[in-house]
Amino acid sequence: MSQLAAELPDGRQISIAHGASDRLSCGVIVLEPVKVFDNPAVFEATSRLAVDLKEIFEGCLPSEIAGLAEARNLYKSFSMDPSRHRPSSEALLRRVMKGKDLYRINNAVDSCNLASLTFLLPVGMYDLDLVVGDISLRAGLPDESYQGIRKGDVHLSGRLGLFDQDGPFGSPTSDSARTCVSEKTKSILAVIMATNSFPENKMEAALSTFGYLFGKYCNGLEKFRIVLGGA
Fold this sequence. Notes:
This protein has five helices and eleven strands; from the N terminus they run βββααααβββββββαβ. By secondary structure, the chain is of the alpha+beta class. The chain has a single domain (5-229), classed as Phenylalanyl-tRNA Synthetase, Chain B, domain 3. The strands form three sheets. The protein has a five-stranded mixed beta sheet, with no helix packed on it. It has a four-stranded antiparallel beta sheet with strand order 4-10-3-11. Strands 6-7 form a two-stranded antiparallel ribbon. Helix 4 packs antiparallel against helix 5 (200-218).
């Protein structure tokens, strides 16, 4: 039987609620300490990958790109229309396919974008010190929402989200302003999201990619990782 809960290094618990366990698997990783600053090297690496992706997927619709099917199927399982509420990985790839540069924020956000473009799964990334208490991944209740980064409220009724003691703070679409990573961040929690049927070895590979990139560009040390859920 797949594992649905785990204890983080600081003693808090992260879990997939039973109502979501038949639809969701996720890779969880904690990196600390990390150093958040402007690092041109990661943005340059992302630009090089963007050129390759544009060549590989030129002329393809998102629905025709195998790597995006996983996130799209996850959205559909939570009654989310991926054409209306884009998985973060698809939003990144769409921008790349249009020949637009990604927003350059800092080495942590840029590394997260690079990782998501590499394995094409949505990633939620949070300042762990700003998350309050235990963490649960579940479908949102009516009227549950959070303030997104550079956008209005992200509504979670019936949709997949991450919740702590103070309420929702993330989803596969957008991270929240409340727990966003900044230059003050020392500890990062990242959650890579996929369907329940996503192979565990592929999720482990995605976690390895994420950890490697954060070690290379953020001086981040991997303190913890686990795969929750899955068939």
